[in-house]
Write a structure and sequence with these properties.
This protein is mainly α. 78% of the residues lie in helices and 0% in strands. Helix 1 (2-24) crosses helix 2 (32-44) and helix 3 (50-75) runs antiparallel to helix 7.
Amino acid sequence: MTEFIINLIAWGGYFGIFLLMALENIVPPVPSEVIMGLGGIAVARGHMAVVPLIVAGTVGSVAGNYFWYYIGRNIGYERFRPFVERHGRWLTIEWSDIEKVHRFFVKRGGWVIFVFRFMPTFRTIISLPAGMTFMPLWKFVIWTAAGSAIWNTVLAYAGILLGSRFQQLDRYVGPVSVATFVIIALAYGWRVLTWKPKG
């Protein structure tokens, strides 16, 4: 698995990194930790340079997050309410939860965008309320790019350090990815089964 992805990255070059990182933030096919980590291994092998790798990954992250920002901005805050009321059971949220997030985001949206870039579960979905609260695009791009650049740099250098232990990494990436998705699915299923609306 790891060998296949790293060969795909090497074949696609920096555009491949950009595309994978953009898609990872829209419909996650492969986690960014794997993409940038394997990009770092490609650097260690001499197939890439670290600065263009980080730039391509960061631009891809911003592009993918802009997709959700755009959707949020076009849906708007109030137009989201019928969707939540209809599908709240499966989302395990109520409109009052959305209102709390909205108020919090209006007050502290900038640094929330930045901090959430380091959280695997929420770093993409946070772009939706950014658009819904009409955060200025320039502010959204700056905070997103800043957080993504730091996170991608950490992942890339982790990949470079792991480059000398490629066989060990290859042994664990597949099982860890599968285990992560299973845990997320089980946690979601448990939340849906046990969730009760406050109203």
